Structure formats: C-alpha cells, structure tokens
C-alpha cells in the first residue's frame, strides 16, 4: 500500500521516515482518504510507545506522511532471526504494546492490525507500535472499509473480526495475545492452508497449551496469554492497562517458585546485567557474591544459535535445583560438625536426634555485618507530581544500571524542557547499606540540569521537598556528559537523581520534543 523512505527534515535538521502512498493507489479516492485519516488518527495520540506523526503531504496527486524515525527493527525481523524469545523480553514487549493500545483505546480507536511487523524495537529496548492504517473509531459509523471484508492480517485476527462483529479494544488485546504466543512458541497458534482456513481455525479449536511447547515458562505468563486468546471478549483482560499490570506482576515473579537468574553469555556472575524486578517497578541488580535467588520461574527451553539483535535489557534464566541440594548438604555437614563432640562415644540411650533448640545453633553461624563496599540494591523512577502513578517509564529503569552506556532510561516526552511545570522527574537509587561516597550520573542527551539528593531514612522520601538540600548546586551542561555528587555528612540509604531541565530528543514529536535520557548511574561508596 505504501513505501517508507528515509528523509531529512531541513527545517528541524533531523532524520524522519516518510511513508508515501504507492502511485497506483493514489488515484483511488477511498484508499487516499484512508491514508490521510491514518495520519490524523495517529497525530491525536502522544505516547512513548506509539510512532509519532509529524506532518502530512499532498503534492501533485501523491500523499505522504512524515513520521518519527525509529532506528531499530520490527518484531517480525527479530522473530525471523531467533524464532523464539525469552519470557522476560516477551513480557517487556507485551507491556509496552499494551500501554500503547490502552492510549489508543482511550482515544476511541481500535488498531485492528496488531502484528509483529507493526511492532518496532530499538537497540536500547524501546518498543513502539506503528501503522494505524486500518484503525477504526469505536463509535464511528463512517468507516472506509467494507463491512463484508475482514480488515487485518489473517494470522492475527480476533474471533469477532472473523465473524464480522462489532469491535472494541479487546480485539486488539486478542491480537497481542497471538503475538506473545508466537514470541514464546516460535509459531502462531492457528495456521491453515489459506488465509481463510487460518482465520477460521480460531473459531474451531483451542490453541495448543504453551506449557506443552515450553514446559518451563512461568505458569502465570502462560495462563495470561491463554486468557488473551479467549474467544469470548468478556473472558479477556478488559483494558491494555490491566494487561500491562498483569505482565508487570508476573515479571516481578511474585506468583512463581524461586529460581536462579544466570547472567547472559559473556557476562560474569558478578556483572550487573542480571536484574531482579520486584513488585512496584523496582529493579534490583545482581549482587557481588554469585547468583541472585528471586521469585520467578525460569525458562530452559533450548534455542538455536546465539541471540542477535536483542535489546540490552534481555537476560535469560535457568533453574538450578542442585544449588538447593548443595545448600542442604552444607547445612547437614555443619550440624554434624557441631553435634559430633556430643555424640561421639555416647551410648544408645543418648544418641537420639537433637531437639530443635540444639539445632538453632546453626543460625549463629551467620557473619556479622562489617564495613565495606556498598552497591545498588534497587532503582525506581520518581515522578512526585504524577498523583496517579508516581512513576515514569518504570519498565526502563534497569537500563540506567546495566553497565552499558549505550542504553538509557528515558523520561516521557514533554512540551517544555521543564516538564510542563513539574518539580522534576528522575530516579531513586537504593543502596545495599547506608554509606558515604560518590554517585556518578551519565547523561545521554543535552542540555540538562540535574540535582542529586541523599536520604538516610528507612524509605525513600515521597516528595522533592522531603529530601532536603541537594548534595551540590544544580549541574547544568549543554553537551552530554557526567555529573558526580559526593555523600559526606551522613551515610545515606537512598539517592535521588532529579532532572530539572532536559533538551530535545529526535524520537519525540514536534508537539512534545523534550525528553531526558540517563544512560548510567554508578556508585562508589562504603558503609
């Protein structure tokens, strides 16, 4: 229907993508009008997970749309390369697309063509939904698509689309469920000899249970995807926001047995690539003393080849029950060693198993805490002026402590460099223990203005004012760089990196061009 070209916006000196309607279709008034309406539709949406529309062009009978340029690849390309994705990456993609769909549905739009080819992924892990070409207003009666034609891609149609029923946002959530199923299974659940057979298959049978295809998937994730694939829309999550919340809860591991996170290939156990996501959006990096035990079920399904083109946030898990066995054996050895003097040479009358009070001596073997290096225990986003959420892009916070300056946590896009009158947004870092030392922040874009605060409270202060005085005067720079603050007066448990001003970012729309990017936070402190 259209071709996409790389172009340069000479007015704003930035690269953009230009979607040009093919010449053979430009003379069709219905197609041309649908193309024009897509631009108007998307221009109404301002969301970090939706590809922004900057402008439209109608020149000498040719129509074009000027869009945000996304430097990355489509999920279709990623699946063609890897066939299957990890549960962690799948949940990240699902949460981002669910958030985008929620914004579209609240604006009264149904996408109707959610599929891997319309989901774009950047190298730093951002996920954007594209192509609202056949989107339809929820209350619209002026639809330029035929009532007798199924609009969409056969593999990713909802049952109500196949039946020609009235659609709402839950049709898009069904399609997203098909996408997530394919990410984990390596294939779509319904496939026939023709598009018609493929479309009808979802009305005739249930999808193969994901746990049969990948037995080690988190049960909560498998159950959620099968809920999304319910034929009755009432049995699916009601909104994109609900789906995102469910995915975030499952990603935190609160519903699944304890397993071990293993760092990706090429990263040492002591590295900071492996991260634990806890309820509430806090990311906890791997500690310095081996694998972290967290509440999430891992995936050990074999995949072919090494991952390619996976965003930096991707990490893999594997269960290691042998660790539990080793720990139990070690405890048994310690108990025997402690009890050996009492049992050696004893008579049968006093050689019975020790009672529980005697066994409690094992707990005294724990080492007393000593002064030493302090690391990062967790990180959360901070947006005190957002009364509903109190956070900003919580799914990205791990990118600020992943040891990779090429990735970054980003704020939302704003109309002004001062966040539309907010007191600021940023990140709260929790240390493993109260400590003094230095905190270094690396900014990926500019200009920027940063303040750094520290607190010795038992929990992070909820407002900027409650943090007290900043550690140093506001740091302002016109080029990307680093800011270092020193904690000296009192050992701190929490550190706030607060952005007061940010610069323009090419990924944002012209209506909301300002965004801050923190690429890395490093702590050099002692307790």
TrEMBL record:
This is Unannotated protein. PANTHER family: MITOGEN-ACTIVATED PROTEIN KINASE KINASE KINASE 20-RELATED (PTHR43289), SERINE_THREONINE-PROTEIN KINASE NEKL-3 (PTHR43289:SF6). Residues 1-250 form the Protein kinase domain. It holds the Pfam family Pkinase. Residues 257-277 have a biased composition (Polar residues). One of its GO terms (molecular function) is protein serine/threonine kinase activity. SMART domains: S_TKc (SM00220). The lineage of its organism: unclassified sequences, metagenomes, ecological metagenomes. The chain crosses the membrane at residues 323-340. Residues 253-290 are annotated as: Disordered. InterPro entries: Kinase-like_dom_sf (IPR011009), Prot_kinase_dom (IPR000719), Ser/Thr_kinase_AS (IPR008271). Keywords: ATP-binding, Kinase, Membrane, Nucleotide-binding, Serine/threonine-protein kinase, Transferase, Transmembrane, Transmembrane helix. The keyword Transmembrane applies. Coiled coil: none annotated.
């Amino acid at each position: 229907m259209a071709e996409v070209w790389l172009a340069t916006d000479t007015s704003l000196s930035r690269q953009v993508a230009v979607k040009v309607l093919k010449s053979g279709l430009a003379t069709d008034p219905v197609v041309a009008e649908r193309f024009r309406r897509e631009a108007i539709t998307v221009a109404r949406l301002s969301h970090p997970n939706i590809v922004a529309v900057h402008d439209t062009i109608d020149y000498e009978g040719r129509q074009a749309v000027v869009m945000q340029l996304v430097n990355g690849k489509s999920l279709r390309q990623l699946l063609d390369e890897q066939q299957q994705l990890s549960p962690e990456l799948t949940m990240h993609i699902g949460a981002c697309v669910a958030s985008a769909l929620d914004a579209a549905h609240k604006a009264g739009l149904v996408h109707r063509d959610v599929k891997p080819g319309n989901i774009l992924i950047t190298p730093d892990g951002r996920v954007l939904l594209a192509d609202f070409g056949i989107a339809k207003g929820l209350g619209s009666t002026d639809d330029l698509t035929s009532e007798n034609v199924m609009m969409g891609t056969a593999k990713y149609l909802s049952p109500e689309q196949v039946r020609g029923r009235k659609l709402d946002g839950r049709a898009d959530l069904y399609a997203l469920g098909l996408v997530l199923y394919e990410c984990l299974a390596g294939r779509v659940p319904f496939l026939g000899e023709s598009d018609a057979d493929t479309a009808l298959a979802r009305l005739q049978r249930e999808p193969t249970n994901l746990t049969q295809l990948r037995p080690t998937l988190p049960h909560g994730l498998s159950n959620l995807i099968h809920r999304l694939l319910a034929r009755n829309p009432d049995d699916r999550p009601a909104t994109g926001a609900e789906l995102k919340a469910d995915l975030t809860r499952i990603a935190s591991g609160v519903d699944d047995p304890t397993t071990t996170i293993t760092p990706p290939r090429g990263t040492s156990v002591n590295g900071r690539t492996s991260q634990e996501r806890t309820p509430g959006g806090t990311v906890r990096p791997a500690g310095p003393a081996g694998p972290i035990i967290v509440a999430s079920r891992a995936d050990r399904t074999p995949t072919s080849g090494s991952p390619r083109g996976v965003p930096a946030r991707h990490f893999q898990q594997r269960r290691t029950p042998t660790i539990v066995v080793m720990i139990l054996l070690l405890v048994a050895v310690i108990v025997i060693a402690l009890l050996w003097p009492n049992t050696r040479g004893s008579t049968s009358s006093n050689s019975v198993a020790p009672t529980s009070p005697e066994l409690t001596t094992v707990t005294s073997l724990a080492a007393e805490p000593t002064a030493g290096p302090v690391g990062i225990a967790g990180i959360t986003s901070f947006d005190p002026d957002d009364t509903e959420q109190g956070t900003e892009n919580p799914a990205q916070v791990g990118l600020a402590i992943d040891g990779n300056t090429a990735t970054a946590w980003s704020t939302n896009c704003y109309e002004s460099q001062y966040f539309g009158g907010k007191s600021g947004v940023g990140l709260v870092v929790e240390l493993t223990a109260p400590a003094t030392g230095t905190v270094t922040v690396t900014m990926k874009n500019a200009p920027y203005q940063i303040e750094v605060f520290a607190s010795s409270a038992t929990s992070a202060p909820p407002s900027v004012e409650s943090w007290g005085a900043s550690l140093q005067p506001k740091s302002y720079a016109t080029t990307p760089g680093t800011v270092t603050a020193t904690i000296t007066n009192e050992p701190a448990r929490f550190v706030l990196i607060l952005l007061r001003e940010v610069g323009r970012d090419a990924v944002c729309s012209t209506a909301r061009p300002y965004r801050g990017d923190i690429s890395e936070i490093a702590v050099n402190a002692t307790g």
